[in-house]
Design goal:
single chain, alpha/beta, two-stranded antiparallel ribbon, 4 helices, 11 strands
Length: 216
């Protein structure tokens, strides 16, 4: 059984940071990068991120439509929002639970759909992300955007499950601990032989560059 196409969609500084050292909600990219994010998310069936990302933002990005007169409104068609979390203690006051989206939860703890009525569906983490992605494929998820955080991205990379990386490089050096792949405790190298080809590259405003890499 095949798995969904998994696309990392991310904005990163030159030194690989995805947030400022103080943490919290942040989007490093320009308005032009946000338009690309909007386009990318409009083409997937679902997005997935970890609990840390949800805590930091307390919401998710909503796909928007731009009308001829430049009026912007929220699209009626939104990707399913999937949260990967073993903890099921969510703050019902977060904006996330008021947004017009379908919410799913993936957890390795016992599934109990009665305990989390904030989520339409609760799925069990099946020993590996590959097995879990096969389950998502059976649920009709063919294209999945991986939005973070670093630990979740790292887990997918270790299983060689990423098919595309769509990254906007922000010409800033930020520092701090919020990298898009966490530092390993050992010097072990993984996926060294995995090669990526450039599918497209675009210069954006503020000297940003958006690059679409695809797994070879």
């Amino acid at each position: 059984m095949s798995i969904p196409r998994v696309i990392i969609v991310i904005a990163s500084s030159l030194d690989g940071r995805i947030a400022f050292p103080g943490g919290g909600e942040s989007h490093l990219g320009s308005d032009e990068d946000k338009k690309i994010l909007n386009q990318n998310l409009s083409m997937v069936d679902a997005t997935i991120f970890g609990l840390g990302t949800l805590i930091a933002h307390q919401s998710t990005y909503l796909v928007k439509n731009v009308i001829d007169n430049d009026e912007v409104n929220i699209s009626k068609s939104q990707p399913i929002s999937i949260v990967a979390s073993n903890s099921k203690k969510f703050n019902s006051n977060w904006k996330y639970f008021r947004q017009p989206i379908r919410r799913w939860l993936i957890s390795s703890s016992k599934v109990d759909n009665s305990s989390n009525n904030q989520f339409e569906k609760e799925l069990f983490f099946e020993d590996s992300w590959k097995k879990t992605l096969i389950s998502l494929k059976k649920q009709g998820i063919n294209d999945l955007a991986l939005l973070g955080g670093a630990k979740l991205i790292n887990s997918f990379i270790k299983e060689d499950l990423i098919t595309d990386i769509k990254i906007t490089i922000i010409p800033r050096i930020i520092g701090g601990r919020y990298t898009w792949i966490p530092l390993e405790q050992t010097n072990a190298i993984f996926n060294l032989e995995r090669l990526w080809e450039i599918k497209s590259m675009k210069n954006l405003m503020n000297n940003e560059i958006h690059i679409h890499y695809k797994k070879i």
